[in-house]
Amino acid sequence: MNNNKKKDLERMFSPREVAVVGATEKEGKIGNIIARNLLGLGYEGKIFFVNPKHKTLFKKRSYKSLTEIDDKIDLAIIAVPAKFVNQIVDEAKNKVKNFVVISAGFAEMNLEGKKREEELSTMAEKYQLNILGPNCLGFINPKIKLNASFASDLPKQGGISLISQSGALMVAMMDKARQESLKFSQIISVGNKMQLDEVALLKYLESDQDTKVIAIYLEGIKNGKELVKTAKKINKPIIILKAGRSEKTLQAISSHTGSLAGSDEIASIAFAKAGILRVQSLEEFFNTIKFISNYTDEKDNIRDFKNSVIITNAGGPGVLATDVFAETRLQLVDLSSETKDTLQQFLPMEASVENPVDLLGDADESRYEQALKILSNEKELDTIFCLLTAQDQTPTEKIAQVLVNFSNENDKRVIPIFIGAEKINKAVNILEKNNLPNFSFPKMAIKAVDRIYNWQEKRKELQLDEASVSEKNVGQVEVIRKSQQIIKNAIKENRKALLFAEATEVMKNYNIPTVDFVNFVDKKLWNNLSTAKLKFPVVLKIDSDKILHKTDRQGLILNIDNKKELRQAVKKMWTNFPGEKLLAQSMIVSQSELILGLKRDPIFGATIVFGLGGIYTEVFKMVDFMLLPLTRKEIKRNILQSKINFLFQKTRGKIIADVDEMTDLIFNFSRLAEDLQQVKEIDINPLLINKEGKFLAVDIKIMI
């Protein structure tokens, strides 16, 4: 069981005393690698080895158990077969409060391992222990030269904290970091995440002064709601690479809503709501970490990057870089006439002073230096992408130093894109030693900047949301009571869905407009026709909790023009579906058909689906998603940024629907979703927009 309360993990990740259970001098064993890492990389804390088979290890005393050690122990690293782990923790629970369980053989293996992990989790909760793992690589704290893992070496100290569910990826990232001069505050392998998961570690890293950027690789999330809640409060950039984007099998679902909202898509919505920057590949993950870790100021803020200029010594790469901008929200600024005139005064006649600025292939360090100085006077300019190809006459190292000097003396951000291999190696070393990460290709750099810019804009929106007056998504007590009673009655009858009349009543309780209808319960209720407020033509539908997709089962008859045709249609329907309830509705002339739905994701909770509806909903998938809770301000912004935003904009002088009315409707719908937790899914399809631009729920399914 996860306990995501904020834990005191300082002594775990910055221990003064470390004990290794399972230490050994035998080469190739995990206990050997961990012991050598502790002894050989500069860690200055006390080190204890526990192995009952030895009296000494590495010229130090070897203890039979943790309890035999007289000194205080901040951290115990356990690297023994899984079957011994719980006993070791149980014996030492009053002496040691922080454990790293390297051992595999727990829930990732089999039922026996799962039971073992559950016992360990219960012990951790009962005795207030902090346990990282099991089945993990351990962790590394470069600041105190502590490698409490079986990964080799020690990365440079810096501001990146990496949390990884994959030990192999953690090792690969460390290896790549050595090439690119990435610097770390913490590197933590979480393994099975039995207790210390991404949420607990985020809470710890939030207050860790050395952490400037948090990078997370995940394969699964246990508590999505808590992750969103926690991440929203953290001002440090959080970058996530989550695996598991495709599903091998499609789960059987009973509504359009369920088929539209895949778990990975909901994860993306959740990350955006939390202000987390999600990347989709290892390359993006690495480039974004590399970029963002080097472009924070003294207050850990990231400057704006939107307005950009390119300077280059080669026309081809400059053109390719320009093309990339069309795929982003970044802008290439129009240089002022004053800037262009000044550039022309010192550049050769063949050079270009438009954006991109082409300094030509023979450009030396003075040409780059002067161009940068002139461009720095452009007030609206944020970012200078500095492209360089290593031509025979190009003094790459001197130009690299020019960029370093400019970056140190100027508010404008300069981003090096030195293209080449051996000819640029020394220049790249100069750049990266001075926290100017080089990108090998223009697209790599520009896309990284665009991701950061979009993240900045999302964080600004979230801050505005937090600053606005909060709206409680709780309906009136009487509204909730009446709606819950309808659901309770259906549950008593062992039904999986509400009947249309019941669903309509629930909708009306929450001020969601519905279409008038007439119920045909049995053949004696023909008088309903004489009192009905139906306008012909009408549609006749089956009203059953067992048949949800009426068109597929031919439980729908359209274009009934009079009472005679309606009587005939009712008889036909009862012949095909004996004993089932029927309902008739007036056919509405609509301008558009929408869908509005609710899905309860097992990880992230209640999710609203909205977009184009009708019978082709699942074909076109013109839908968007919102994660609860929601404010009106947030809903309106989502609508205006959605795939159906054209419905709320003037087209040929006409607006199809009112965005404020749609906002109110979805807000009321979100209140319903929060109040009525017994409801599993809702599917309003179609939600019509009539000729007057008003919304009407026509077909409503509420699954319980």
What does this structure look like?
The protein is of the alpha/beta class. The chain folds into four domains: 10-292, 3-Layer(aba) Sandwich (Rossmann fold), CATH 3.40.50.261; 307-465, Rossmann fold (3-Layer(aba) Sandwich); 516-587, Dna Ligase, domain 1; 590-703, D-amino Acid Aminotransferase, Chain A, domain 1, CATH 3.30.470.20. It is 37% helix and 22% strand. It has 23 helices and 29 strands. The strands form five sheets. The chain has a seven-stranded mixed β-sheet. Strands 9-8-11-10-12-13-14 form a seven-stranded mixed β-sheet, with helices on both faces. Strands 24, 25, 26, 27, 28 and 29 form a six-stranded antiparallel β-sheet that branches. It is flat.
Keywords:
alpha/beta; 23 helices; Rossmann fold; single chain; 704 residues; 29 strands; seven-stranded mixed beta sheet; Dna Ligase, domain 1
Topology, pairings included?
Layout (H helix, E strand, L loop, with lengths): L9 H4 L3 E5 L8 H11 L5 E5 L5 E2 L2 E4 L11 E4 L3 H11 L5 E4 L9 H17 L2 E3 L5 E4 L4 E4 L6 E9 L2 H14 L2 E7 L8 H9 L6 E6 L5 H10 L4 E5 L13 H5 L2 H12 L2 E3 L2 H11 L14 E6 L2 H11 L5 E2 L4 H10 L10 E2 L6 H11 L7 E7 L6 H14 L3 E7 L5 H9 L8 H26 L9 H16 L7 H10 L7 E4 L7 H4 L6 E6 L12 E5 L2 H14 L4 E6 L3 E12 L3 E8 L4 H4 L2 E5 L4 H9 L18 H17 L5 E10 L4 E3 L2 E4 L1
Parallel strand pairs: 1-2, 1-5, 2-4, 5-6, 6-7, 10-11, 10-12, 12-13, 13-14, 15-16, 15-17, 15-18, 18-19
Antiparallel strand pairs: 3-4, 8-9, 8-11, 20-23, 21-22, 21-23, 24-25, 24-27, 25-26, 27-28, 27-29
Helix pairs in contact: 3-4, 6-7, 7-9, 10-16, 11-16, 12-13, 13-14, 14-15, 17-18, 22-23
